[in-house]
Design a protein that fits this description.
The protein has helices at about 1-10, 15-60, 70-80, 100-105, 110-115, 230-235, 270-275, 355, 375-385, 405-410, 415, 440, and strands spanning about 105-110, 120-125, 135-140, 145, 155-160, 165-175, 180, 205-210, 220, 245-250, 260, 300-305, 430, 455-460, 475, 480-490, 505-510, 525-535. It is α+β, with helices and mostly antiparallel strands. Strands 1, 2, 3, 6, 10 and 18 form a six-stranded antiparallel sheet that branches. It is elongated, with a radius of gyration of 35 Å. It starts with a helix and ends with a strand. The relative contact order is 0.14.
């Protein structure tokens, strides 16, 4: 009997599950503890990273690259961190995320490449380097989570911190959609530069590019994203250019803007620009926009005194509108090595002498995009100013005066410098009109509200050969933004267009564009949009 009971005991399997659970309890608790504590650490990491992200974004909003911007960025970072809390740390340091040493935990970078790689940091104490500080990195304090269950398996706590880098997103606005293939581009040089400072006052003869034949000095157009060719004409002529702003990843000279070029050759582009000279062809100001002329719209064109701007072709290049001076009284030089002495009925700000002559004339440089800055100052002043007039009233030696300096002086002294000639002309007699006569009556212009300096434009200089520009090209880097002065309207001049063609654009180099100037009255405007995270 006892033997049978012993055998039954050893064969009895009731209660085996309880024993199994008892043996598995410890690893089950460990796994559950690890899951709970891992979730705590992951959650704390998310909290700290969110705080770092928000702090970096807050700091980036202050990075204008102006004096005091670094101090403002640090203050914004510290102020923003006060409102960020961590609920999952239990190290007794409180619920607020902080940086205890801003000098170490906040650093700045000049370029996005440096920010991404963590190279060449600028300490927050180096406040004199504000012009270089375009990106900011924030590292928050180390925080600790005391584990609740994990100590059972030997671990005690976990520590985590977080870091984020941010910059300010920007856009270049009020940019005319005009580009010029770098006249200095050498196909044997990698990424050739354009030195605008060395060319100040030089004339630039820009001829249209197209197809696969884009050469140094050709001009073309930028695609601003709206309305195609119509949008380009609007942006070239309208007071408030149409089209979209060009997005930038920060005001950073090491990260050039990229642009898209416009498909095809827009033949009426120069005529849209001519509205700035008070010349309005039928396709000049399109879609009901306002195309104000420059206050100083002096040009080598004349117009009948009694022409009515709102009728016929009296505001266009036409025999009843704007036209060249009478034969024998035009500025048609035939030798660039001497000053012009023939009578001139009306003379605009002329081309460099080597560009003003015809192909084959002595001293011509018409095969080159650049002139030499030597324009016929003597003929210009003799035409428009009394004998003995001293151009030295402009604070610069007469022989060095640029056309843009003369132009701006004339605007400042408009009541004496912009008088129409000949004085006392009547009836259908041709006369110069140095101040607008068409714009005010037909196109909504008035001196009080007209945009300043309409004959100053910003153009993109692009290495067309390097980037294989062929009309519609995407994401082309801009080598330089350059301010130019529109010297004369685009007009066919001379028999057989021997002197100029209406598809040529002639400008004078003013200098490299300062794209850091926010809200400037002329040139491009930087619109600062929203900060963005780099890493």
């Amino acid at each position: 009997m006892a033997r049978a009971l012993d055998k039954g005991f050893w064969r009895d399997q009731s209660g085996a599950v309880a024993a199994t659970y008892a043996l598995a309890l410890i690893p089950l608790v460990a796994i559950l503890g690890l899951a709970f504590d891992y979730a705590r650490v992951v959650g704390m990491d998310s909290e700290l990273q969110a705080a770092a992200d928000q702090a970096a974004l807050a700091g980036a909003t202050q990075l204008t690259r102006n004096a005091g911007s670094m101090e403002l960025a640090v203050a914004a970072i510290q102020g923003g961190l006060v409102s960020n809390s961590t609920l999952l740390s239990n190290d007794g340091a409180g619920g607020t995320v902080a940086i205890t040493d801003a000098g170490v935990q906040v650093v700045f970078y000049n370029s996005r490449a440096d920010a991404e790689n963590g190279t060449n940091p600028i300490l927050s104490t180096e406040t004199g380097r504000f012009a270089e500080a375009g990106f900011v990195q924030v590292t928050v304090d180390l925080r600790t989570a005391e584990y609740a269950f994990t100590p059972i398996v030997g671990a005690i706590s976990g520590s985590i911190n977080a870091s984020a880098v941010a910059g300010i997103g920007s856009a270049l606005c009020r940019i005319p959609p005009l580009m010029i293939c770098n006249p200095d581009e050498d196909p044997n040089v990698t990424n050739p530069d354009f030195d605008a400072a060395a060319r100040v006052g030089f004339g630039l003869l820009a001829k249209p590019g197209g197809g696969s034949q884009w050469t140094p000095g050709n001009y073309g157009y930028l695609d601003l994203g709206t309305n195609g060719a119509v949008g380009v004409r609007q942006a070239l002529g309208w007071d408030g250019p149409g089209g979209e702003c060009l997005s930038q990843s920060g005001v950073d000279t090491e990260e050039p803007a990229t642009v898209d070029t416009q498909t095809g050759n827009i033949a009426s582009g120069p005529q849209a620009i001519n509205t700035r000279f008070d010349i309005y062809e039928s396709q000049g100001c399109v879609n009901g926009g306002t195309c104000s002329p420059a206050l100083n719209s002096r040009k080598d064109m004349m117009r009948a005194v009694d022409a009515v701007p709102s009728t016929g072709n009296s505001c266009s290049l036409h025999n009843t509108g704007w036209q060249e001076p009478p034969t024998g009284q035009r500025y048609y030089p035939t030798d660039a090595t001497v000053d012009y002495v023939a009578p001139i009925a009306s003379m605009g700000h002329p081309r460099d002498k080597c560009h003003a002559v015809r192909d084959g004339d002595p001293g011509n440089c018409r095969t080159s995009a650049f002139g030499d800055g030597n324009w016929d100052r003597a003929a210009y002043f003799a035409t428009h100013y009394p004998v003995g007039f001293n151009p030295g009233v402009i604070p610069k030696a007469g022989a060095q005066l640029t056309r843009h300096e003369v132009y701006t002086w004339e605007e400042t002294n408009q009541n004496t410098a912009l008088l129409d000639t000949p004085a006392g002309a009547t009836g259908s007699q041709l006369t110069t009109r140095n101040r607008p006569v068409c714009g005010p009556q037909a196109y909504g212009w008035n001196a009080a509200s007209a945009p300043l300096d309409r004959r100053r434009m910003t153009v993109a200089v692009i290495n067309c050969n390097q980037h294989d520009v062929r009309g519609n090209s995407q994401d082309v880097p801009v080598r330089r933004w350059v301010d130019v002065f529109l010297v004369q309207p685009s007009v066919d001049r001379g028999p057989g267009n021997a002197y100029t063609r209406k598809d040529e654009i002639y400008v004078e180099i003013i200098g490299e564009t300062d794209i850091s100037r926010s809200g400037a009255p002329v040139g491009p405007t930087i619109r600062r949009d929203v900060p963005y995270l780099v890493r």
